[in-house]
Write a structure and sequence with these properties.
11% strand, Molybdopterin biosynthesis moea protein, domain 2, single chain
């Protein structure tokens, strides 16, 4: 299967996986043949991309593309986070009106604890800590989907870094709460369809401060978690916000969460732009390793991402197109491919190319046509 933006979909394309909402309700079933009517329906639900497949191509793929965690657990986590966060915000607003502060954060923390433990267990029990699938998000639930994805990526990186379970747990909880400060803003501000004004952007940059204040006033979370929330938009060269902190002044675990946050945000469809691809975001992160992001963590993270998952259509440096059959784990930028010639698979021996053994070819880009 392969990731395709809806604008590139053609009639008679087959859906590769069930399209579901955060309640795990099926919106469109796997193997349905797409047409202009159901593509329009998908767009109306806030989706901008999906996974499609060509049965002829599926038979030749030499590895399976799958999520690092159980998709049902992912969706349940998103729903639980959304439900508890909305009730938490409603209770805080009610308390402010009554000038009484109670235990509004306790229920939220119980849910966060449960979700974080569930995600940690999934990742610790995973056979392969690599990301080869981009989660299909709906604009309507982006904040909560982003929170869970950021947690998954952060846990994965923390495990790869060799952190202990207490540190991993702090990172997971903070990841799920990094955007709690958005509750200070209207939905129109943080989900703006175009560029923000200078004043609006200045206001948005305060959301880590607001999040830290909310968690300090309404929860018993430890200082590590709260500081990670406060620091997750800092950058090691001092260009981040809200404090403009530099390398050693930033909480070391916030450096993990900032990478996960950036990666998932950039690979997500938003109202004002389509998702960037795996390889594009990894190039951005590695291009800024040692400047914006911690160099060692960036290297570890980049090795956890599969830039060209099996089924991806690519353009080679010699102008030929191909489909990725499988990845070389030690060199993910040089997978095994099958050439596509005249819109058909080239089944000759020459059409099967292992880029690890063919040094004069590189992948130029991912293509959808």
């Amino acid at each position: 299967m392969r990731f395709i933006p809806l604008d590139f979909l053609k009639d008679n394309t087959m859906l590769a996986e069930n399209l579901v909402n955060i309640r795990n309700q099926i919106l469109l079933r796997k193997n349905v043949v797409l047409n202009s009517k159901n593509i329009s329906r998908i767009k109306a639900l806030g989706f901008k991309s999906l996974y499609a497949k060509n049965p002829d191509e599926e038979d030749i793929l030499e590895e399976e593309v799958k999520d690092i965690i159980n998709p049902e657990i992912r969706k349940k986590s998103i729903f639980d986070i959304k439900d508890s966060m909305e009730r938490f915000t409603e209770e805080i607003n009610k308390q402010k009106q009554q000038l009484v502060y109670g235990n509004s954060g306790q229920e939220l923390l119980e849910v966060i604890d449960h979700v974080s433990e569930s995600l940690i267990d999934e990742i610790l029990n995973s056979n392969d800590l690599k990301i080869s699938i981009m989660d299909i998000k709906s604009e309507n639930d982006y904040l909560y989907e982003h929170a869970v994805n950021t947690a998954v990526l952060s846990i994965m990186l923390a495990v790869k870094k060799g952190l202990n379970i207490k540190e991993i747990r702090n990172i997971a909880i903070a990841s799920l709460l990094i955007n709690v400060g958005y509750k200070y803003f209207s939905k129109d501000l943080y989900d703006h369809p175009g560029p923000l004004t200078d004043d609006a952007w200045k206001e948005m940059r305060q959301h880590p401060v607001h999040g830290h204040e909310i968690l300090t006033a309404n929860t018993t979370l430890n200082s590590h978690v709260r500081t990670i929330v406060l620091h997750h938009h800092e950058r090691i060269d001092g260009s981040g916000y809200p404090g403009g902190l530099k390398n050693n002044d930033i909480h070391p675990h916030a450096k993990i969460v900032m990478l996960a946050d950036v990666y998932d945000a950039m690979t997500s469809d938003r109202k004002h732009r389509s998702a960037f691809l795996h390889n594009e975001v990894i190039e951005y992160i590695m291009g800024n390793a040692g400047r914006l992001f911690d160099f060692e963590l960036s290297n570890i993270f980049s090795r956890c991402i599969v830039p060209y998952p099996a089924g991806t259509h690519i353009l080679l440096s010699d102008g030929r197109k191909g489909i990725v059959l499988k990845n070389n784990n030690s060199h993910p930028l040089r997978p095994v491919i099958r050439i596509i010639k005249d819109n058909k698979l080239d089944e000759s021996p020459e059409g099967h190319i292992d880029l690890m053994k063919t040094h004069n070819l590189t992948i130029e880009k991912i293509v959808y046509d």
